Amino acid sequence: MVPQSPSEWPLHYLRWAKIRQRGAIDLATSGVKACALSDLALAGEDLAINGPNDEGYVPLMEAIANRYGLRTGQIVTATGTSGANFLVFGALLKPGDEVLIEQPGYGPLVAVPQYLGATIKRFQRSFERQFGVDTGEILNAITPRTKLVVLTNPHNPTGAVLPVEALREIGGAAARVGASVLVDEVYLDGIWRDRPSTAASLGAPFISTSSLTKIYGLAGLRCGWVAAPLELAGRIREMHDIVDGTGPVPTEMLGVVAIRKLDQLRERSRRLLAANMEIFQQWMHGQERLEWVEPSGGTVGFPRFRDLADSEPFIERLLSQQGISLVPGKFFDLPAHFRCGLGGDTAALVRGLDGLGQALRGC
Ligand SMILES: Cc1ncc(COP(=O)(O)O)c(C=O)c1O
Questions:
Q1: Neighbours of 302 (CB within 10 A)
Q2: CA dist., res. 341 & res. 277, Å (int)
Q3: 152 lines ligand 1 (CB under 6 A)
Q4: 180-184 and 25-26 strand pairing
Q5: How far apart are alpha carbons 143 and 173 in whole angstroms?
Q6: How far apart are CA 359 and CA 287, in angstroms?
Q7: 3-class DSSP state for residue 41?
Q8: Which of 82, 86, 117, 139 yields a CA-CA distance of 20 to 30 A from 15?
Q9: Inter-residue contact 345 to 272 (CB < 8 Å)
């Protein structure tokens, strides 16, 4: 199989996110407002350029394992959740293997297995089901050729959270055919009440991926990881050997400092996201042209137009006439929706929603 060159790919979300024109009010991002370096209050010994990191920076692996109640060897460090997902796909898939992936979903979770020559099957998370999963549909789609079932929890882009019973049912069916279940949990720490524990703590066949990028305002650190059953973690670490060689020492050292301060950083994010979510909820109440499933967690809202099949022309006009950016739903396979980021500056969100409300009323 000869992989397609990236220039032949259709415009995908991440490329768009990098080259898009940004409005003065940018509601198209999915992370929380950036932290300053001073928020980490570094001591001299907290940071070095070089150091031992052949198999991952051990203090970071220990800190993540402690948080999850897992063994240190179950953690593989990676470049963000993106890098973590790539390592899992690379370690587990060969051409022709079947991968079941949620739809709507986050583009790279489809693009990487496609690039590796896997056969992609999608299962639906629909508005009518509050963007939950139909476990019957997934169980029916699992075959002896299935190698991986892929989910996000909370779901990107809707923020829906999966009940642990559904995960267990999917895990049981996957295990019966020797498949694994990859749960991308990059938004999991953005659930403030009744936060489920990581899927990896359910044991085989679950693999979790996450990072400090989205919820904590530490996007630039690119500090991510995989949590997997011990034997699989070994294979994933071998994938890390050929993708990344050795991990970045400064990033992983700063990751340790951030995890030490995680409760404090989390409280900062909770305050911001809770205030912004309330503003967005109130605003949605008054919008006759829109409907949505309220997210249980995460950093975005994902409303749907009642009267437009494709939000993109509206969003382009909003950007050119009012300087407000949103993400068209087409990047998540649902063109009638749009994604609005809720992790940024509250005053900017209020101004953005004012402008968006006017545009929706046609003024
Ligand atoms: C579901 C999901 N996984 C992974 C990522 C990327 O995470 P990271 O920045 O840690 O690579 C995103 C970013 O939007 C995402 O939505």
A1: 26
A2: 10
A3: yes
A4: unpaired
A5: 9
A6: 11
A7: coil
A8: 117
A9: no
Pocket test for ligand 1, best of 29, 125, 152, 156 (most atoms within 8 A of CB): 156
User: Quick one: CA dihedral 237, 238, 243, 246, positive or negative?
Assistant: positive
> Locate tokens 């999917």: which residue?
170
Token code pair at residue 148: 């991986």
Give the global pTM: 0.95
The alpha carbon of 186 and the centre of ligand 1 are apart by a number of angstroms equal to: 6
Q: Look up tokens 């209050």; give the residue.
A: 41
Phi-psi region of 341 (alpha: psi -120 to 50; beta: other; left: phi over 0): beta
Nearest atom, ligand 1, residue 31 CA: 14
- Is 221 within 8 Å of 255 (Cβ atoms)? yes
Which amino acid, residue 292? W
Q: Tens digit of pLDDT for each residue in 171-185? A: 999 999 999 999 999
Query: In ligand 1, which atom is closest to the CA atom of 79?
Result: 11
The DSSP element (H or E) to which 253 belongs, if any, is: helix 249-260
Please give the DSSP secondary-structure letter assigned to residue 11: P
**What domains can be seen in the chain, in order of their start residue?**
11-34+263-361 (3.90.1150.10), 41-261 (3.40.640.10)
CA proximity to 162, closest of 205, 128, 198, 119: 198
Asked whether 292 and 160 are in contact (CB, 8 A), the reply is no
Model confidence at 74: pLDDT above 80 = yes
Task: Give, for 152, the enclosing helix (H) or strand (E).
Answer: strand 146-152
Helices (H), 37-187: 58-68, 80-92, 108-115, 135-141, 164-176
pLDDT band at 9 (very low <50, low <70, confident <90, very high): low
CA of 147 to the centre of ligand 1 (A): 22
In sequence order, what are the residues at sequence separation of 6 or more whose Cβ sits closer than 8 angstroms to the Cβ of residue 36? none
Place of tokens 């109640």: 69
The number of beta carbons lying within 10 Å of the beta carbon of residue 335 is 17
